[in-house]
Amino acid sequence: MALALMLVIEGLLPFISPAAWRQVFARMLAMSDGQIRFIGLSSIAVGALALLFVWR
Fold first, then answer.
1. pLDDT at site 2
2. Count of CB atoms within 10 A of residue 14's CB?
3. What is the pLDDT of residue 45?
4. Are the CB atoms for 32 and 40 separated by under 8 Å?
5. Terminal alpha carbon distance of the chain
6. CA atoms within 13 A on the CB side of 39
7. Average pLDDT of the segment spanning 22-49
8. Helices 2-16 and 18-30: angle between axes, nearest 10 degrees
9. Has residue 20 got a pLDDT over 90?
10. Which of 6, 13, 12 is nearest to 51 (CA)?
11. How far is CA 43 from the centre of its chain?
12. What is the rounded distance in angstroms from the CA atom of residue 18 to the CA atom of residue 24?
């Protein structure tokens, strides 16, 4: 169920605004590996905290 919800949420931007989606990826290609890793780590932390709040 969580995977399905993630796919729905991630599909919203390319469906609603394909041009903005391309711009996001162009900016990501310009980022360094460290910046992308930091974004990934931040996403993991926010997701883990959200799970903790929902789990309780």
1. 83
2. 14
3. 95
4. no
5. 19
6. 8
7. 94
8. 100
9. yes
10. 6
11. 7
12. 10
With beta carbons less than 8 A apart as the criterion, state whether 30 and 36 touch. Answer: no
Structure tokens belonging to residue 51: 């799970």
Residues 6+ apart with CB under 8 A from 13: 20, 21, 24
DSSP 16: H
Residue bearing tokens 């460290």: 34
The C-alpha angle 15, 30, 9, rounded to 5 degrees, equals: 25
Tokens 């796919």 found at: 7
Secondary structure (3-state) at 53: helix
pTM for the model stands at 0.71
Residues 6+ apart with CB under 8 A from 4: none
